[in-house]
Amino acid sequence: MPMKNFFWLLLVPCFCLACGNHYPWEVEEALLQAGKNRRELEKVLKHYGSNPADSLKYKAVEFLIANMPGKYSEYYDAPWNDVATVCLRRTSSSDIQSVLETYKLGAPVTREDVKCITAGYLIGNVELAFRAWQDKPWGKHISFETFCEEILPYRVSTEPLENWREKALASFADIDKALREDSTMTAVSACAAVNKLLPQFRLDRDFPAMSYSQLMASTRSVCSGETALAAFVMRALGIPVTIDFTPYWAQVPYGHDWNSVCDSSGRHISFMGTETNPYEPHQGTIILKSKAYRKTFAHNRIVAASKKDIPPLFNNNIKDVSTEHKGCTDVKIPAIYRAAAPTGYAYLALLHDSQWNIAAYGSADSAYLNFPAVGKNVLHLPVYYTDGSQYPAGSPFLVDSNGHTATFSADSPDSLLTFSAVAPDDDHPYFFRMVGGVFEGANKQDFSDAKVIHTVKRMPDMYNSVRLSGKHTYRYVRYKSPENGVCNVAEVEFAGIFGKKLEGVHIGTAGSFGNLGQTGDNVFDGNIATFYDAAEASGAWTGLDLGEPQRITEIRYMPRVEGYGIYVGHEYELFCWGKDSWKSLGKQTAAGTAVEFRAPSKALFYLVNLTTQKKGRAFYMSNKQSFF
To answer: Count of alpha carbons within 13 Å of 352, Cβ hemisphere only?
Structure first.
């Protein structure tokens, strides 16, 4: 039920109802679900329902209890679960299942709040939340409705419950005192001051939802952990803060969380917890996205249909806040395909690795599909969703910066199209990292007698060949990274007399960035799709022990590439989007740095490098150029 309707219900007198144990139906429903724990919840209602001075706190308790069903903790029942150890051990291994088995963690424990939360815990949460709201100079500008959503909630996600408010107030006691005593302080300025004090995280993956204590003890998390910590601390200090998110970026199959703070006028200003302050740019504001949503404590469903006809995203408690971000527009397009089982809803899906993932919602009638506030310059496919499956409602489209809608159809006339990339993304974003790098030769293994035989003085091309005229011979040869170059190079060949490629044993700096496997030996494997990405930004090198001194007559090298280019001898297959799937338009082997296909001129394409199994992003052609 929308929160504004719930607050309307709370306008009825509450104290006589409390005495007779008659509650609004949402509260009564939660009490029924509580089972044996009903007694604990009713203790809280009676605690605040017996004193008219606590009328606002009573309403706050009704809000918490009415929206409690569906809230739960999920964690591993380990003796050290109250710190971040379990999380750190999970992410320190690429094999999470092995970690779980080693430490005998078993399956995660799930505890429903409504069945286990105690009266003492709720009363403590309410008291500290009200105190923080009312003792701050900006509190008088924060509405009760905003307080209930952005300060009062006793949890942020599915983290283990703890007395986080007491802990945060103890940790941030000095600034809490300063905020109370500064009559000029606003919620936004307080947010900025507190955010600077939050610990910085190293981004890592695969963390379960962590409690306040776990987040404070950890050095690693993802954006959801950063935003959660900001919410814990800000709310403990009476600063109204939300967690906002986009389910998917426009071009990658994952999304992002960030925060917003509510100012005295009720407007929300976004920021990135632990990283950037309100009004400063961050990923949530600068990267292309289709939609922005806000997580709510209140039961709030954007889509009202049977569960089997609702995409998973919209089974969460969220509200649409896309209009708070720039670059959005309302879209109305014809419904080309009719829904077999109409629900009154249509959705927009984003393309990631040839799959369409639902990210936006709208309404559907017999003639049109209407979508509120969707991102410009983002490729969308309108779809229906029924009985757990999605299927197209129309052709892919995008709205450009000027508000013009471009639709992509395989029914457009064929023409001969030339492709110089698997996708229009620049194939050489890392080429600059070789400028200042050097190739050296030596006859001592530690390179103490090294001689520079070539310096990369300008931005290299994709394929590079350097002829050498010197007559010196070297047993050891290497490429050494410039400052901050991360030793990014894809291929290196050292040639001897008559241009013959020299073979040797790999030597060089050990490891790779993030231990992701892009080690120095990749440079000599003959595969342009692999590369060296060093563990350290500066000082790394990769080379060969040739076994005996050899004269070097030529160096052939390729910088690290994204893999989206057209490479000589590689085979490519072109696909275009039809009515409901990708259709192959044939295969070509590149004789140069471009391939040609006969294809529908206004269709949506993607090109696959069959040799390296590298898929390009979707693109379309206009005036012989590709876009996206």
So the answer is: 15
